[in-house]
Amino acid sequence: MELLINLVVVLHLLGLAAIVGSAVFVARGVPTPALVWGARAQLVTGLVLVGLNQAADEPVDNTKIAVKLVVALAVAACAEIAAGRERRGQGRPELVHAAGGLAVLNTLVAVLWT
Ligand code: HEM
């Protein structure tokens, strides 16, 4: 079980890298597939991690998880809306920046909320 949890944590960290790498470092202001799929992956892998930790009787901080879920939903909303607007030729770079910034915020919550 521990190996499985650690493997999903790796996927979770790759999702983080896809969002922040894409939004902040690579395609500033342009929504890439990596941004959109990274945001989706964070929701899926995060929820799987909660389930696996509970199944393994590991403690889960529900308040922290609730905050992370709300922030991750905001990241995904920003990424999806930015991608939709981009397809219609109405780019919204500020939404891409917001997705990257909120992902960094969620990283701070993940690491500093003890
Ligand atoms: C943009 C969205 C997200 C980012 C950037 C993010 C970031 C992170 C990071 C960096 C860690 C590793 C922290 C550490 O091990 O010290 C982590 C762990 C974790 N995240 Fe997220 N996260 C996001 C969304 C979510 C969501 C939506 C959930 C659940 C609803 C979630 C649940 C968890 C759990 C349970 C762990 C602990 C894994 C473990 O140690 O077993 N995350 N997250």
From TrEMBL:
Keyword Transmembrane part of the UniProt annotation: yes
Keyword Membrane set for record: yes
Keywords recorded for this protein, A-Z: Membrane, Transmembrane, Transmembrane helix
Transmembrane segment boundaries: 6-27, 34-53, 65-83, 95-113
Source domain of life: Bacteria
Name used for this protein in its record: Membrane protein
Organism listed in the record: Knoellia aerolata DSM 18566
